[in-house]
Amino acid sequence: MEVILMIIFFTVFWAAVAKFGPILVTKGPQDDLVRCIFLLTAVVCWLFWLCCYLAQLNPLLGPKLDGKTIRIIASSWGYPIKDG
Question: What's the confidence (pLDDT) of residue 84?
């Protein structure tokens, strides 16, 4: 549930940047360029955030630990692994 809420929150945030960003800029000869920059910035930042967030949910690579390190970590956490 929290994953969906985070995605919705940041989608709304970057949509607001794309929608209301051009309003904050004063009128000038390059209005279309400024609107395009705000839109592209919002889309690219949202897409970058989404890729990073989703990559952390299901990482493709995990830590590579040898057996000794795993036993040390397990015993320090109170779950000793018996050799055998």
Answer: 57
